[in-house]
Amino acid sequence: xxxxxxxxxxxxxxxxxxxxxxxxxxxxxxxxxxxxxxxxxxxxxxxxxxxxxxxxxxxxxxxxxxxxxxxxxxxxxxxxxxxxxxxxxxxxxx
Length: 94
Description:
Layout: E1 2-5, E2 12-19, E3 42-46, H1 50-61, H2 73-81
Antiparallel strand pairs: 1-2, 2-3
C-alpha cells in the first residue's frame, strides 16, 4: 500500500507498506486454505529517503517477488513519474 498527496501523475507518495503473506499459491496465484498464524513480517518505508526508495524499487521491479495490489493505478503512476523530492523512476513488474 502507498500513501501520499494526490497519488497519480504529478502526485507525491510518502510511504510504502508491504506485508508478507502465505494466503495464495505462488505458482497458480490462487487462494490457499491456511491456518491463521501471526508470523507475518512487514515493512513501512519512507519514500522521502533515497535508501528506502531503493528498497521499494527492488521489491516493485522484481518479477520474482509476487505482489497483490488493488486500486493502485495512481500509486503506480506516482512510482513511475514522481519527481519530488527526487525522481523515483520505479517501473513495477508483475
